[in-house]
User: Fold this.
Amino acid sequence: MKKQIFVLGLLSCLLLSCEKVVKPVYDINITFNDDVDETPKDGRLLLMLSTDDSDEPRFQINDGLNTQLIFGLNVNDWEPNTSITFDGSTFGYPYASLKDVPPGEYNVQALLNVYETFNLSTGHTVKLPMDNGEGQQWQRSPGNLYSKPFKIRVASNGIENVSVVLDQVIPPIAEPEDTKWIKHIKVKSEKLSEFWGRDIYLGAHVLLPKGFEEHPEAKYPLMVFQGHFPSDFSGFRTTPPDPKMKPEYSERFNLEGYNIIQQQEAYDFYKRWNEPDFPRFIIIEIQHPTPYYDDSYAVNSASQGPYGDALTYELIPEIEKQFRGMGEGWSRFLYGGSTGGWEALAVQVKYPEEYNGCFAACPDPIDFRAYALTNIYEDANAYYYPSTHKKLEVPSHRNYLGQIQSTLRQGNHLELVLGDKSRSGQQWDIWEATYSPQGKDGYPVRIWDKMTGEIDHKVAEYWKENFDLRHILERDWDKLGPNLKGKIHIYCGDMDNYYLNNAVYLMEDFLESTTEPYYDGEVLYGDRAEHCWNGDSEQPNAITRLRYNSMYVPKIMERIEKSAPKGADLTSWRYR
Assistant:
């Protein structure tokens, strides 16, 4: 009898154990219906979860400490009214899997970043997100499908019976309108259209000098402001700050009412632009987004095509033709910060006779021995420091006190969620799309394994010979030096958030050691200054970053006086 009771008890325990072994389910199903769009879709499908009710989840994904959750996968020929399932195997950030999401209540939202098909002149066919006037912002790109957020509960036994319907379409963006001061231009690029197999346009916002209409005899020097995709000309305002505007706090600069400060600086620039002794220039902010990023990095590249030639030989001459630019190399100047800082220096190096000076602030890595904190030529892994017994991640972002907000691995894994094959539209991927050779599949070759961080040193050598600006200058100084003397100016904070000062140190070491000829420019550092420091040691970074359009003018005027060729027009544009 006791034996029978024992067996029955054992069976009961086994049955209970079987019930406990039931695996949790982590499935979220996503569809779009033919009321939204009747055509099959290619693209990157993104699922987002957020515990923050302050905004839609699509606007809360970032590389910082306050990011929310995102998961992504590719879709090809996705038919309306058919379901795509996100499950525990779908890669995510900052949690790698839905299985890792803590129990709780979340806002859920999905979005499809739509891809288009490009038949490249190289013979490759690729699928990429075309820019639609927003500057490659997947959260806001017109034509992308998305859902309205709603709440779900993640339980300890998983996620069940959750269906999300993409029933919204992001609308088109209105083109900016011309004003007395600011004009807008678009030019079809024959060079880029041939590469991409479809019409590609370049654009610019053009700030005209005071007296442009009243002085038809005048021709003007050109200032090219490099940087990310501008929706309109920035930092120029003809009226004082809006008195009804609610002050907004800037966490980055610890300033209340920074939006008001920005408007005041824009209005102050307008007043300086009209002062009698202010030189009369044309300033342009260019638009050159690509299917990989909000701008092309302004150079020719294997996967993006001849953007450098298109900008220098198609767009800029057309602007000078329409708005009476002088159209000569001695009268053109480049400046910008971050991406724009790299572009200003790279364009000056790649086209040394077409421009007469660059002012590169906080430039992206200009020596790949300091690709942020990675030496792509010697390091084996980009994500971890070498160690036998310790696994320490390489940081990617800090504040001015050195406190870390993100690591290289985390930022790259976010990009991998947003898009594979360098298609995330983010920072590390655009460097890859610009600097890498084109792969057999038509996409850029990876500089490192996106999951593990293992560096491909063959790709690194390609980067070195084609885009490592310090290496190119050192390699070719005997030819480049005479055309670059007096043209190179670099500025960087010594606590740059992205460690960009490290590459500037290496560039300075080379420039200051050159003697035939001496580069005759300048490299300056801001003490404890963060990203976007641009050479002004008297004002805080929060202010100097708003003064790019005027702060280099005295240096440009000095350069013109030293270098203008005999017989150059130095008077028609100096009216009061």
The two ends are 114 Å apart (CA to CA).
